[in-house]
Automatic annotation (TrEMBL):
Pfam families the UniProt entry points to: MlaC
Name of the protein this chain belongs to: Phospholipid transport system substrate-binding protein
InterPro entries given in the database record: MlaC/ttg2D, Tgt2/MlaC_sf
Signal peptide positions (record): 1-21
Species of origin: Fodinibius salinus
Keywords of the record: Signal
Length: 202
């Protein structure tokens, strides 16, 4: 089971140094924002903020880091996938509350280990088909290498690429959350899942 801490740590790996990218795109759409540029720009923003090891941060800097890290994540898509048919039974307000709780938990854990931002990531290839993309990377933190694959989608409404899943060592993060949430829903119901998330936020 992928824990929230591991989940948020995985998100950080997306936003560090891109040493190599080999995009594979047979019908490049020039009107779409470039994925490579998106990753590089975000990496540069983070690198400028975190500075060298031992740097102390103001509340404003921490909040800005949190925003940069999480802006690329499509929490609504992840929540819908994790809740499955339960998502369709919720009202708009209920959906918004769930997504807010889910994203808040991840955001609050995203700054727990700033050294993760200093990891060296090699972007091995980007396979893009229309409005979806798969980004394959190899992240190295100290002597540990971890293959991480990102599934991305082009969001028409906001005209940007967003992450919908991370596959870490062949384990889908979104899939793990789906199994975790569905297990709670089957055994105790959706209200119990919501109560658990509320407690984590508190």
């Amino acid at each position: 089971m992928v824990t929230i801490k591991k989940f948020s740590s995985a998100l950080l790996l997306l936003l560090v140094t891109a040493a190599f990218i080999n995009p594979i795109d047979g019908w490049a759409q020039q009107e779409r924002p470039d994925i490579k540029q998106l990753l590089e720009d975000r990496d540069q923003e983070i690198k400028e903020l975190i500075g060298p090891k031992g740097t102390e941060y103001t509340t404003e800097q921490r909040n800005k880091l949190k925003d940069i890290i999480n802006a690329i994540i499509d929490y609504r898509a992840m929540a819908q996938y994790a809740l499955q048919e339960t998502y369709d039974t919720l009202s708009t307000d209920q959906r918004d509350e769930f997504i807010d709780l889910f994203s808040t938990i991840v955001r609050d854990h995203s700054l727990n280990n700033l050294d993760i931002y200093r990891a060296d990531v090699r972007y091995q290839e980007i396979n893009r088909v229309k409005d979806t993309a798969v980004v394959k990377t190899l992240a190295q933190l100290e002597k540990v290498r971890t293959p991480v694959t990102y599934k991305m989608m082009y969001e028409q409404e906001n005209q940007q690429w967003v992450v919908t899943d991370m596959i870490i060592d062949d384990v889908s993060t979104a899939g793990s959350y789906r199994r975790q949430f569905q297990s709670i829903i089957r055994k105790k119901g959706y209200d119990s899942l919501l109560k658990t998330l509320r407690k984590k936020v508190q």
